[in-house]
Specification:
Length: 517
């Protein structure tokens, strides 16, 4: 028999039943605090759900609510006004928040640092504090800059800031202190409190219930897992006498906000791309259509939610490749069969013969950031003695180098920058993602196509403490603004591969042991 228990949330007493709910369930679904995000529950690995319990940072998705009986829970919504304003300003002034999904949890973590009296010029302490978090957008550096800027920054934004953000992310993207403070308008945050919740039931259907916790119970969801086995890249090299050869592994797009949408009966569903482009990973997401169908079936608003494990299993991946290229630019690239991928490759590497092959594994998509053309462009560029310029299909250009000490320098041309801080942040994030892809990311998929890495930590995303300095130089012009992130992604991938001596396999010898760390 469940007993009622009390806690305080942002200064307000809350009474809940002592069932097996987590603090995250209670905060989002009972107390209605939507600034606390769910990026991986119940894995406890992304940090998006971090709140303060009696002033100490705590990961709420792995905290049973009974453990906080009688305690005081503070989210970013409950911080003193001057403190939350200072964090909003710091993250805005530095570009430390893009989609903003990770930011409220990071602010709570940084509040823990502040409470300990850690000085704001201590970048190392801030980077170490970020070990409990994941940010896929910013490349970490702007977040550490936000720690440094706290208390002194003004939330200045150029007029075109949101336009630059939308250009780079490929979807609507709000910019400003409210995004950092968790009010970016994510699909699941705007759902009515009385909406039903639907989650995949693992059997091609949907478990629908009054709450997420109940829907997960019906679906029989278990904690995600990761593997310690190493799986070889899935495609064999084409036979030939190659000057350069490359095999890539399965990798996970790893966007932090899992797929979500809601719909009222007879209404228009929200988009899982309400605030961020997910690097192309949600372009074909089913959740909006499912929300509309289930809302009509049940005659009530329905929230459709993927767990992290659902996103990994069902979300499309970058098609793996195996390729060989001769000095004259001719060669063969084998790529997992994917609609549109052959055209993307041929557009940048007409000397490569494209062979599409069937590979057992998760779905693939040519919508994922630079899929196909980046691999092909990197192979071609690797033939040159010096790094050159990369131009993305949209027209933005970038050049990059990785120095002997590992530091990265990037130069970009994207027409009118619109807002240099925002542009710099997107470039830093794209550079981090490329570096991470080439050096440390992989997703364990066995020969039968089953995914063995289902937790956010197992994707091998480069941590803040392992990320080298990334220097971005903007070459502005008065030309029409164009996105540069994908060009940066390509240029840094090539520079990282070059710096590693062009080994055949990606990820190359890991610069850090994050994969199983
Ligand atoms: S949602 Fe709690 S750590 Fe990811
Ligand atoms: S801003 Fe960190 S995940 Fe998007």
């Amino acid at each position: 028999m469940s007993e009622p228990l009390e806690l305080t949330v942002d200064g307000v007493p809350v009474t809940v039943l002592d069932d097996s709910a987590t603090l995250l369930d209670v905060l989002r679904d009972v107390a209605g605090v939507r600034s606390v995000k769910d990026g991986c529950s119940p894995q406890g690995q992304c940090g998006c759900c971090t709140v303060l319990v009696d002033g100490q940072p705590r990961v709420s998705c792995v905290t049973p609510v009974r453990r906080v009986r009688g305690r005081s829970v503070t989210t970013v919504d409950g911080l003193p006004d001057d403190v939350s304003a200072a964090w909003g300003a710091a993250f805005t002034a530095t570009g430390g928040s893009q989609c903003g999904f990770c930011t409220p949890g990071i602010i709570c973590r940084f509040e823990g640092l502040r409470a300990k009296g850690v000085p704001h010029d201590d970048r190392e302490a801030a980077s170490s504090a970020l070990l409990a978090h994941l940010c896929r957008c910013t490349g970490w550096q702007p977040i550490v800059d936000a720690w440094v800027a706290f208390g002194t920054a003004e939330p200045t934004l150029a007029e075109g800031a949101a336009a630059r953000a939308a250009l780079e992310s490929g979807s609507p993207q709000a910019v400003g202190p409210h995004v950092a403070l968790g009010r970016g308008g994510f699909a699941d945050d705007t759902a009515p409190a009385d909406a039903l919740v639907a989650v995949p039931d693992g059997d091609d259907g949907w478990a629908v219930a009054e709450s997420r916790a109940e829907a997960l119970r019906i679906a029989g969801k278990v904690q995600g897992r990761r593997t310690t086995a190493d799986f070889a890249p899935p495609i064999e090299l084409p036979p030939g006498d190659w000057h350069r050869a490359l095999r890539t592994s399965w990798v996970e797009p790893g966007y932090l906000e899992t797929d979500a949408a809601w719909c009222a009966p007879g209404g228009e569903p929200t988009s899982p791309l309400e605030n961020g482009g997910a690097f192309g990973g949600k372009v074909t997401s089913e959740v909006s259509a499912v929300a509309r169908r289930l809302a009509d079936e049940h005659g009530r608003p329905v929230r459709v939610l993927y767990s992290r494990e659902d996103t990994v299993r069902r979300g499309p991946k970058r098609p793996p490749i195996a390729a060989g290229i001769r000095r004259d630019g001719t060669g063969t690239i084998r790529v997992a069969r994917t609609q549109g991928i052959a055209d993307a490759i041929r557009a940048v590497a007409p000397g490569l013969t494209v062979e599409e092959v069937d590979v057992a594994g998760p779905p693939t998509s040519a919508d994922i950031r630079g899929a196909g053309w980046v691999e092909a462009a990197v192979l071609v560029a690797s033939l040159a003695d010096e790094p050159g310029w990369f131009t993305a299909p949209g027209g933005g250009s970038a050049r990059a180098a990785v120095a002997a000490d590992g530091s990265v320098s990037v130069t970009v041309r994207g027409g009118d920058p619109l807002d240099e801080t925002v542009l710099r942040s997107y470039c830093t994030g794209a550079a981090h993602m490329a570096l991470s892809w080439v050096t440390s990311e992989s997703l364990g998929v066995d020969e039968g196509g089953e995914i063995h890495d289902l937790t956010v930590r197992s994707f091998g995303i480069l941590r803040a403490v392992d990320t080298p300095p990334i220097q971005v130089t903007i070459e502005p012009s008065a030309d029409t603004p164009v996105a540069v992130g994908d060009a940066v992604f390509a240029a840094v991938a090539e520079a990282a591969w070059r710096a590693a001596g062009h080994p055949t396999l990606w990820p190359v010898a890991a610069v850090s042991d994050t994969r199983h760390g």
